[in-house]
Amino acid sequence: MIPSMIMQTELLSFISRRNLETDNAQSASKQLKEVPVEEFRMKRHYNVINVKKGYLPPVAKRLREILIKEGRNIFESGKTN
Questions:
Q1: Which domain of life is it from (predicted)?
Q2: What's this model's pTM, rounded to 2 decimal places?
Q3: H/E element holding 72?
Q4: Could you give the CA distance from residue 60 to residue 58 in angstroms, rounded to a whole number?
Q5: Where do the DSSP E strands lie in the chain?
């Protein structure tokens, strides 16, 4: 939705690269182009927090393990192994 809204204006916009690359934005990606400006790049930091002796469901434990082991690769490439 956001790429199509941007296409209706003649203005520059700030949008996530992932939003621009989605399947729904295929036609938009032909008309919208990224202008790489390092100062506009938004870096995010993620943390995994849990209570030391608290209950953590098995699926949450597995997610925690994946994030600890592969988190950097997941968020840099957008893919899991």
A1: Bacteria
A2: 0.40
A3: helix 58-77
A4: 5
A5: none
